[in-house]
Specification:
Elements lengths: L7 H10 L4 H19 L2 E4 L1 H16 L11 E5 L26 H8 L3 E6 L33 H8 L5 E3 L8 H7 L2
Parallel strand pairs: 2-3, 2-4
Antiparallel strand pairs: 1-3
Helix pairs in contact: 2-3, 5-6
Length: 188
Amino acid sequence: MSLTHLTINQAAVLLARGEISPLELTRAHLERIQQVDGRLNSFITLTPELALQQARQAEAEMLAGMRKGPLHGIPLALKDLFETAGVRTTAGSSFWAEHVTQTDAAAVQKLRAAGAVLLGKLNMHEIALGVTNENPHFGDTCNPHNLQCIPGGSSGGAGAALAAGLCLGALGSDTGGSIRIPASLCGV
């Protein structure tokens, strides 16, 4: 069984049964990112220390019988448009290359409350204004099925990371196809 290609539901069932641990699941994804993302460039910012800390916390909570629900201990990644406390949020632009907020976007707050594990922030079309996910500041993201092709955008990092097994779920956004296009082109 490949831990990096489970569905969220499959992983949640295995975690609830104690057949795998959040730490084991997170380490498998961090290793996969190290092996594959150099070719894909789906992440702008990795947060391995935070992910391992959150996985350890989820594991301790689960062992104490305090399971929060189906996202508890699940490794996820966020489009770099979602403000995340203490983590750089660039919106794919050099203008915000060093922007670190002290507050979470509402969606990030909910994921943290659910016990999700944050692997990092995903590459995107600059300021979410495009459909190719070509990024002049952080590099283009490649489609994992064919490195010569685009994943689409503006949430292309999310589509590519999910299709390549770098995370079990990814948060993107959509105004004019920003997540629908990558989902289609990456087959997720």
